[in-house]
Amino acid sequence: MSSAVVSAIQTIYEPDTPLDLHRVEILTLARHRAVDSKFVAGLVLDHGARHPDMPTQLLNVKVMTCNISLEYEQTETQAGFVYSTAEEREKLVESERVWLDERCRRIVEFKRQACADGETFCIINQKGVDPLSLDMFAKEGILCLRRAKRRNMERLTLATGGSIILSLEDLETSMLGYAGSVKQVTYGEDKYTFVEDCPNSQSGTLLLQGPNKLTTEQIKDAAKDGLRAVKNAVEDGALVPGGGAFEIAASEHLLHKVVPTLKGKTKLGVQAYAQALLVIPKTLAANSGFDVQDVLLKLQDERNSTNMAIGLDVKTGEPMLSAEQGVWDNVRVKRQGLHLATVLANQLLLVDEVMRAGKQMGRNAQPNPEMMG
């Protein structure tokens, strides 16, 4: 899972550009095991073709991503057509069919112009495609997917290149994307389409698998957390040792370097702050099933003797060098935690001051003679 998350961030990363996690599609499958989850440097669509004669696997594929209606549609306004005979009705239906057939023929001709020998053609349309149009594409060896999700249309262009086609006028081959492989896979009763082997892909899909829905949802939450953590690390350009190492080092620094330089009540406040920081390693020890006090003393002794970033190994309960074990935390998470803790503590103390002032004012208030009379 970790390598898949890192691969996803590497795929969408662009220098000097904020990372957009919406470029990564997260798709869950209730099958196999969690370890079978993987990252696809392309796109996986949760539907397949709607025609039995369409190809299920294509190689060297020109991908046409479009938002064009290829089916009968309702009129935008409250319009109607009046006919008096069956022949007039047939002419009306035929004229609509001619309009759709002409659109399909344009796409077929465009495919013949764009595809060289050994190249194939795939249409992914955001709008609908009627059965007769699908049949025309199937005879031409075109794989056509209809009603793709809007969010996947942008991901497709980022993965395959090209652009979303909104009109059949002035079609150019530069509008098409490219994928090395497009294949349709059936899992149980569900069909999935894999658009893979995309050179210079800037979008991808995390394909998460598990034995049941509950497991896949837990994996999905973990994947989202992982994506955000790696994103934060890339944008911060730095990490801090994890496993409670930062909190122990900060607490020791406050107690031994800062407190001796202070006087009065300020010293007590800094001591309380230093002790509060230790709640993180204490919680790690408690959640791992170890004695909190024993673990904390070990960590503090190891820190003082080595002067290095010492964290807790949750498997053994022993001190470890967090950096050597690859245990890290995000800088912005630690910074936000320290800032929020300070602000909340100040607010709570302010509430105490307000309540104390209110009681004092009540004692000092003089009785009103008129009310006593």
TrEMBL record:
Q: What is its main location?
A: cytoplasm
Highest taxon listed in the record's lineage: Eukaryota
The yes or no answer to whether the keyword ATP-binding is present is yes
Q: Which Gene3D superfamilies match?
A: GroEL, GroEL-like equatorial domain
GO CC terms: cytoplasm
Task: Specify whether Chaperone is a keyword of the entry.
Answer: yes
Q: Write out the GO MF terms.
A: ATP binding; ATP-dependent protein folding chaperone
Q: Where in the cell is it found?
A: Cytoplasm
Q: Which Pfam families match?
A: Cpn60_TCP1 (PF00118)
Entry keyword set: ATP-binding, Chaperone, Cytoplasm, Nucleotide-binding
The entry sums up its family as follows: Belongs to the TCP-1 chaperonin family.
Q: What is this protein called?
A: Uncharacterized protein
